C-alpha cells in the first residue's frame, strides 16, 4: 500500500496523464482479469494490430515510437521499450490517446471492454516488471478541489495506471498546474513506482508510473496560504 498526503489548495482541466485523477472511482478493486497469466506475450506489431479498430492512428504512432527507440535501457527489448513509449504519447485530440482509452477500459465495471487491450497490456506490464520498483516521493495534481473525496484515513484503489512525477517544481510550473488558483496536489509515498523516463516519449518529466490496482491510504491534508 502506498501512503498519500493531499495538499488541498482545491478550474478544472486535467493536465494529461499527471492530472487524470477525477475519473478514478476511489473504490476497491474490480474483478481481476481472468486468466491473465495465460495470455501469450506477443509482438508489439500484433498487440497494435489487435487495437487498430479501437484506437485510431495507433499504427502510425507505433511506427514513430519504434523509429525513436534505438538501444533501450534496463534490459528491455525494443518491443517492450516501445510499449512504454507508446503509452506516454499524446494524440490529437487528446481523448483518442492510447493511455486515455486503456485507462478508461481499466476503470470500467464491464471487464469485457478491456479484452481488446489484453495483448498490449501483457507486453506493457512485462516491460514494467523489468524496471526496478522505487521507494520514492511522487506527485500528481489537478486544478480542482478534491479534498472532500479523499478524507483522512480513507483506503482506496486507483484502478488505472497513474502517472506521477518526482519533481514538484515541474508539477507547479506554468506548463502544468502553476502555483496559484484552485488545485489539489497529491504527495504519494510509494514503494512500487516505476521510473519510466528512459523509455518515455517525454524524457524530461521524471515520470513515475504506478501500476493499476495500487492501493493507498490518505494520511493527512494541508492547506497552505
TrEMBL record:
UniProtKB keywords: Glycosyltransferase, NAD, NADP, Nucleotidyltransferase, Secreted, Toxin, Transferase, Virulence
One MF term in the entry's GO annotations: nucleotidyltransferase activity
E.C. numbers: 2.4.2.31
Catalytic activity: L-arginyl-[protein] + NAD(+) = N(omega)-(ADP-D-ribosyl)-L-arginyl-[protein] + nicotinamide + H(+)
Keyword Nuclease set for record: no
Gene3D superfamilies: Toxin ADP-ribosyltransferase, Chain A, domain 1
Coiled coil: none
InterPro entries in the cross-refs: ADP-ribosyltransferase_ARG (IPR050999), ART (IPR000768)
Chief site of localization: secreted
Compartments in which it is found: Secreted
PROSITE patterns: TR_MART (PS51996)
Domain of life: Eukaryota
Record GO cellular component, one term: extracellular region
Keyword Transferase: yes
Family the UniProt entry places it in: Belongs to the Arg-specific ADP-ribosyltransferase family.
Protein name as it appears in the record: NAD(P)(+)--arginine ADP-ribosyltransferase
Organism, scientific name: Rotaria sordida
Amino acid at each position: 500500500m502506498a501512503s498519500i498526503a493531499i495538499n488541498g489548495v482545491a478550474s478544472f482541466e486535467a493536465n494529461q496523464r499527471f492530472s487524470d485523477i477525477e475519473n478514478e472511482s476511489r473504490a476497491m478493486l474490480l474483478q481481476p482479469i481472468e486468466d491473465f497469466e495465460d495470455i501469450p506475450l506477443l509482438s508489439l506489431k500484433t498487440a497494435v494490430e489487435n487495437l487498430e479498430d479501437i484506437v485510431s492512428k495507433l499504427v502510425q504512432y507505433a511506427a514513430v515510437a519504434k523509429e525513436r527507440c534505438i538501444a533501450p535501457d534496463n534490459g528491455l527489448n525494443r518491443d517492450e521499450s516501445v510499449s512504454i513509449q507508446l503509452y506516454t504519447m499524446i494524440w490529437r485530440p487528446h481523448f483518442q490517446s492510447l493511455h486515455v482509452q486503456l485507462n478508461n477500459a481499466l476503470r470500467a465495471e464491464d471487464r469485457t471492454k478491456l479484452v481488446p487491450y489484453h495483448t498490449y497490456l501483457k507486453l506493457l506490464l512485462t516491460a514494467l516488471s523489468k524496471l526496478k520498483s522505487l521507494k520514492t516521493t511522487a506527485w500528481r495534481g489537478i486544478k480542482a478541489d478534491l479534498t472532500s473525496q479523499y478524507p483522512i484515513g480513507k483506503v482506496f484503489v486507483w484502478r488505472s495506471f497513474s502517472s506521477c512525477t518526482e519533481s514538484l517544481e515541474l508539477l507547479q510550473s506554468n506548463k502544468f498546474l502553476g502555483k496559484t488558483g484552485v488545485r489539489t496536489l497529491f504527495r504519494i509515498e510509494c514503494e512500487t513506482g516505476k521510473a519510466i523516463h528512459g523509455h518515455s516519449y517525454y524524457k524530461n518529466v521524471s515520470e513515475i508510473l504506478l501500476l493499476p490496482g495500487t492501493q493507498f491510504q490518505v494520511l493527512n491534508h494541508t492547506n497552505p496560504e
